[in-house]
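haha ok so turns out i had the wrong file open the whole time. this is the CORRECT one, sorry everyone. sequence first:
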Amino acid sequence: MEEHLIRSIESEDDGITLKELLKTVLRYRLLIGMIVFLAFVSGCVYLYFTEPIYEATGEILIASSSSSLLTDKISAQYSESVSPTSINDAIVRLRSSSIADSVIVKNAAFATIGIPREYFNKVQYFLAVPPQENKLFSIVATKQSPEADYLVISESGALIGKGKYNQRFTSPHFTIILSDLNPVTGFDIMLEPVKQMRGRVLGSLKISNIRESNAIRVSYSSSDPALSKKLVNSFMSELSLQDLQNKRAKATGMKVFLENQYKNIVLLLEDTENQYLAEKKNSGIIALDQQTSQYIDLLRYLQEKRIDYEIRLAEATVSKEKAMTVLNGDPELQELSKFASSPFIQGNDIIRELYSRVATFQVENAKLTSQYNKSHPLVQQSASQLEEARKQLDKAITSTVDNATKGIDPLLRPVVESQLVNHININVYQQLLSHIKTEIVNLNRTLDKLPKSEVDKSRFERNIGVNRQIHDLLLTRLEEARIMEAGTISDITIINWADTPLHPVAPQMSRILLLSIFAGLFLSGGLILGIEHFKPSFNSTERMERALSSPVLALIPHLSNNGSMERKILVDPDHKSDDKFETFELFNALIINLLSVSDLNSQKTIVVTSTHAQEGKSLVSANLAVALARTGKRVLLIDCDLRNPVQHNVFGIPNDCGLVEIIKHNSPKGLTKTQYPNLIFLPAGNTGEVSAPEILHDTNLIETVRKLESRFDLVIIDTPPVLLYTDAVALSNYFKNVVLVVKSTTGENAVMRSQKILTKVGARLVGVIVNDVKKSALFGSLYDEYEYGQGYGYGYGYGYAAHEKAKPGKKGRISKRA
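then structure:
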């Protein structure tokens, strides 16, 4: 039960009412205001010294990939519609080292010129060479030499050269033209390696897709608004330029390939026709039979397909090589270029088998097409088989690509997928070419078995027809390649160029100031919570009463011995003191509270104790006894503090006979009348002869007090502190009414431990008397608090000021305002 009571007290102590919170805020208002003000000033200082950051923004549009040279159905991702792949590819390329390095070099972003920004227009021209390591140069104005206006000095102090205003100064490191240096006397130039600068440039670059459309927003943040604009526009221009260069390089590569093929076929065609004309003159014209003509037509078709697949294979190879160049040029993507070689593709038996099936059906369909029209059942059946084989191949390739790119960064995945597709296309065309060439060899063998005249005639017909067909095909494709090379346009269009930002994006003044104010409130709140949590004493009467489950009976101003105990009865009418009236009224209020909460009919004895020594326990006991006696009650004051008896000094009565003599020697002497009516005093007696535990455990002590209790209205026993000795605990085991005197600076833990010790022996804590409270907290205060040490305190209802009347309070407590 006792442990449950203690737990309930501790549980109640954890809470805080809104009233207490408001009082705490008001009590610490100066501290809160000071911290918030300092936080606000800190925010202003931060804004003043922080360099503003400007952000320039531009937008680019990714057009459809209509210029793609791959048209096979297997490469379905090269369709006319805009796909996320192209958006992601553009974002990856914008962040690639090739574009970043080009932008840095073209804009000399690797050079930091230390001239103040407002005088930067004095640099009319600047060009530098990217160094391999950091290099620092100083430009210093000079008047020592008439042929030089400034000197250029290296970091080691070596003279690099001399320069004149408005004239070009050239060195192996940089070239500069200065108008003048006034009012500055010089500045520094820092050159950094491009690789070192790349990380900072890319770190300030922001790239995002605009609402999942085919547009991209490019932003760059810098303390120099002009530089941020220049770099954004440079990144967008460089992306468009490199995209255009890549497309032109592909078109040029295909044009060169087709030109070589065309030259060869022209020479071959001319040679074949000349031989055919010579053969006709010698042997005459021989008509071919129907079967031989079909063989010749099929051979022409297969040769046409062969050259077509060779062109497509060349296109896929060029695309792969260009993409590999981009990948290998970026250190971050070099590992992906190795991964893109696709061991998943090369070692996949299912895909290899599907390659063969598609190629076989392709050749079979070519044979049937050369013999029958498209509506023939055999041709339609063959076309259906070919389409089904292609679908199975597409499905297998998609599944393989998904497995091969699993776990890769989603932003980089399209780059890998495009490389895998290049490998797939190359594989497909290689397989088709292999089957086509095999069929051409077999068909040539069949034609060689015909009669000699038929063979010669068919050979010339075959070669001339095939070569002419190839000639026409190559000529058409060559013209397309030339047109493509001449009219190649970039898929990237800059729709919004960046403008010079006028307002900084950071730091944001309003946000910083609001954050500083909230930070000040947060810090002050944390500091107040820390002070309230770790400070040694209670901060309000409500808190103490809630923690102890006992009322605060009174708040007494400074009552302590300070080495002298004489004439400390402040409730004595004859006592001359400036604070006599105040103390008198406070003890009158104490008596009212004490009598209202104590059941003195059944228990007339009150044990007075404290937590520690020097808390004014004895003086409070003496003044309380005098004040009670003045009400007409017969009061007995017993000095049971056998460790350090002091009550005889307060009343000026000898201590040669008292409680010890009554208990040990059954002496009739000891009870002494005081100068105060109705107050009898029993001093401690000669404590040197016996020990305190010996007296406390003597059965005569309890019997004696019981007998004396029947002769008086009230018995007040002054006992030693609870936390120092067990005397008060031993007595409270028999006399249940206990009054605890605490100093305003006494620790909360000490008070709580004292309460728990008394509760365990069944004592009834009648109430608490708080001693040594500052007068400013008692008289005229509007707050329910007592000051302790640093200016905090109770103004619990004992405030008395002119022209005010006391208001009735609750039972057991004085009214909260006088």
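The longest strand covers residues 54-62.
again sry for the mixup
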